[in-house]
Design brief:
Helix 5 (119-132) crosses helix 7. The N and C termini lie far apart (120 Å). This protein is mainly α and 425 residues long. It is flat and about 115 Å long. The chain contains 18 helices and six strands. The chain is 51% helix and 3% strand. The longest helix has 20 residues, at 235-254.
Length: 425
């Protein structure tokens, strides 16, 4: 039989099924003894082998990624980029300041000693953000205080506070130029509001190690800025000045001791200027109401309860601010993640943040209400959009309804219901 005819019947040509191959002896033994023969196998692998031992911990790897690479110190450009990113994030997340800045501070501490100083660039970035962004001024003042505290031992940032105040001084010296240029008045007002926040938040230690506010910011800087705004009165500059005094007025009066002489520390000239503006013809009614509200606030001790004890430097700015705010309006109360009350600025809001949402008529109505012009005996007067609800007012009715009114269909159904009720004897 030839190879080509193998597996075929020579006559019929049909296929035949070949027999199956028998398993090897080793396979037969495994089948007879059971499949679990792995217990007899010995492995030479070890968890301590070099292939299984990481070169560094996961935490070290993560830290390396955060600081620009595995063990590589960051560059000055990387630090500036991280700082800029953190500033942008703080506009919408002001309550996470320390968390957002911790990575940046770590990067600064990792900078090599030979790196070019970036202090002036950090100062400029922070300053511009504080002046140009209304919702960042309070956060920026707190951030300045944080950086002064955390970086005071860093050789590159040990004089950060002086560098930042120097930048503020440069802007302060431009006040005459800015007030004479209509395009720069908005920047002057932004700078003035930020100086108020910086005065309230930035502190230094005196000779005894006790923290106190900067007398230089109180006077002449803050006082001069208020005077130049009030000496060139417009509705915009008056609004800025009155808002600033509502925010800082109580603290300004409590810290007159910071200035060397009574004349230097006195704000009488500022309030005299405000009172004279009450008859200034070029101001609209809203500005007049704002002036009246801040003067009433001052006459009522900035909304605080009067005490026989003189105010002390330890009085909390936060309490003063909240009391002053509550005196003029009912403001929402904000809380942090620990359930503690915080200010509107800490929650990311400011007075300016709500301005675009007020129509001109609504803003005037609000200012008149704040000044007390729209309320008399518990009812609103002189028209306006905010009318009180009176006990004599009638509810508006869309139909001829009376107390026991039923139309014909309802009355017929009611009569049928009564007839179907079983009678009781």
């Amino acid at each position: 039989m030839s190879s080509g005819s193998a597996g075929k019947d020579s006559e019929s040509g049909s296929h035949f099924q070949p027999g199956l191959r028998r398993p090897l002896l080793s396979t037969q033994e495994k089948l007879q003894n059971g499949l679990d023969s792995s217990k007899n196998l010995q492995s030479t692998l070890s968890v301590n082998a070099p292939e299984f031992v990481p070169r560094k911990s996961l935490y070290q790897d993560f830290q390396g990624l955060q600081i620009g690479g595995y063990g590589q110190p960051p560059t000055s450009e990387q630090v500036l980029d991280s700082f800029k990113t953190a500033l942008t994030a703080l506009i919408s997340q002001p309550g996470n300041m320390e968390e957002l800045m911790s990575g940046v501070i770590d990067q600064i501490n990792q900078l090599p000693a030979t790196a070019e100083s970036i202090q002036n660039k950090v100062v400029e970035m922070l300053f511009e953000q504080c002046v140009s962004e209304p919702n960042f001024r309070y956060t920026g003042a707190r951030l300045c205080r944080l950086l002064c505290k955390k970086l005071k031992s860093h050789p590159m940032f040990q004089d950060f506070r002086n560098a930042f105040l120097t930048r503020c001084k440069e802007e302060y010296l431009k006040k005459e130029e800015m007030i004479s240029n209509p395009k720069l008045i908005d920047r002057l007002c932004g700078f003035t509001m930020f100086i108020g926040e910086l005065f309230l938040n930035l502190e230094i230690e005196d000779g005894s190690g006790k923290a106190q506010k900067l007398g230089l910011l109180r006077s002449p800087v803050l006082k001069d800025l208020l005077l130049i705004l009030l000496s060139n009165p417009t509705d915009f500059t008056v609004k800025c000045a009155t808002q600033l005094l509502k925010l800082t007025g109580s603290t300004i009066e409590d810290t007159a001791y910071l200035n060397k002489t009574p004349e230097e520390g006195s704000y009488d000239e500022v309030f005299l200027q405000i009172r004279q503006l009450d008859t200034y013809p070029d101001l609209n009614r809203t500005s007049k109401c704002l002036i009246k509200s801040v003067l009433d606030l001052k006459d009522n001790n900035w909304g605080r309860s009067r005490s026989s004890n003189p105010p002390t430097p330890e009085d909390s700015y936060q309490q003063n601010y909240q009391q002053a705010a509550n005196f003029t309006q009912n403001e929402p109360i904000f809380y942090n993640q620990h359930g503690q009350p915080i200010s509107a600025q800490e929650a990311g809001y400011s007075d300016q943040a709500f301005d675009p949402y007020l129509q001109e008529e609504e803003e005037e109505e609000f200012a008149r209400w704040e000044a007390g012009e729209l309320e008399e005996g518990g009812h609103w007067v002189e028209g306006g959009d905010y009318q009180a609800w009176s006990d004599q007012d009638e509810y508006f009715q869309t139909g001829p309804f009376t107390e026991n009114y039923m139309d014909e269909e309802i009355e017929a159904a009611y009569e049928e219901f009564l007839r179907q009720q079983p009678s009781h004897h």
